[in-house]
Write a structure and sequence with these properties.
The structure is a single chain. Helices cover about 0% and strands about 15% of the residues. It has a domain of about 35 residues. With about 70 residues, the protein is an all-beta fold. Bound molecules: zinc ion.
Length: about 70
């Protein structure tokens, strides 16, 4: 197929990051955290799905920060 970009290739295709995610799930040094925008509810105060975590209520954050 086509050449892959120089950036890291996700080991599991189809696993899309939410806008609020800071790292790939399973990435060393990252972990799940509650989405601050919806307080982990997955929905905003108006009942809409939280765009930051895409309704999961969780985001992937980098831990340690180098
Ligand atoms: Zn959220």
């Amino acid at each position: 197929m086509a050449n892959v970009p120089s950036q890291a290739t996700p080991s599991n295709p189809g696993n899309q990051l939410s806008p609020g995610d800071e790292a790939q799930p399973g990435t060393l040094g990252s972990g799940e955290d509650l989405c601050e925008d919806c307080s982990g509810k997955g929905k905003l105060s108006d009942g809409r799905e939280c765009p930051t975590c895409e309704g999961t209520g969780k985001v992937i954050r980098g831990i340690g920060g180098g």
